[in-house]
Sequence to fold (369 residues):
Amino acid sequence: MSDETLKHTPLYAAHLEAGARMVPFAGYAMPVQYKDGVLKEHLWTREHAGLFDVSHMGQARLRGVSPLSAFEEVTPGDFIGLKPGKQRYSVLLNKKGGIIDDLMAGRPDDDGLFVVVNGACKENDFKVIDAELAGQVRIDRLEDRALMALQGPKAAQVLAIHAPDAAKLAFMETAALQAFGVDAIISRSGYTGEDGYEISVPGEAALRIWNTLLADERVRPIGLGARDSLRLEAGLPLYGHDLDETVSPIEAGLGFAVSKKRRDARDFPGASRIAAELGGEVTRKTVGLKVEGAPAREGAEIADAEGHVVGVITSGGFSPTLGYPIALGFVPPALAAAGTELKVIVRGRAQAAQVVATPFVPHRYVRKV
Fold:
């Protein structure tokens, strides 16, 4: 895709002005890093507050007579029981129990269900939801809104200056409120493992709000490179890498996204497969790996102690926080226990690797305020 055909978020000019290196991502020109580079941006977010442009993601309101119950027809979560002010991480499933996309869905107010999906998947996601729930819900896409993520241990202090009520939110809570002089939808969530917020605002106000936040010395702009290394340290999957339409929530370690009520009812797409996997009939599991030597990247083979190939790396890289390479990948269940010694094949050479618990770096979500 050429520069001429790439889409721009409302913050495109701000990225250029800040010296960002722009790359194609999900059909958009997005900042992969700024002048300080990925390592410094990663560590700044861990220690202070990083500001991310995630306006490429798909935002929508699902409206209708019963949007919560309707949404359960395409996801395995308990949305009928979702209370106002709460949101859930969930997955959009195909008929075979594979993941079409992972998403966030919440009730910031009484206006249906507010959904945020991945940018690269949004066209197909909304097409699937529309086809499966036709006549039950109306999808009102919020193309005129921008989305930012403010992440890090100083995020709450910074945002409280502009949105005092946001400080009252706990992890995975959401609210529609006035902030920065506009109608905002704010959730205490994110994809870095740090405390922080995702902030949806009108697109025409995005640049002003972006600059207002960056005027605070505790905040710096952060690109996609550090976003990826942060989410990897947090053990969080990335769609198109760790997740795709062949992968089930159980294989991916996302069993929490399948609520107990729905497990018992078996009333979601691919329920028979997922029930069987929950019963032990799973052939692969996602594991975290501590890697010795060079980083093992996506596509690298995983071998057992005898050198037999048993799996594949889905995400991998150097951990700035830990100081050594880490990775996520699929292995047979018999090799998934923490402490299992494995090997990864990097540029034709076998390197030692050990299965470790995830997250690699502990989450710092604020669950109670």
Notes: Residues 122-132 form the longest helix (11 residues). The chain has a mean pLDDT of 97. Residues 300 and 348 are 9 Å apart (CA to CA). The chain has nine helices and 19 strands.
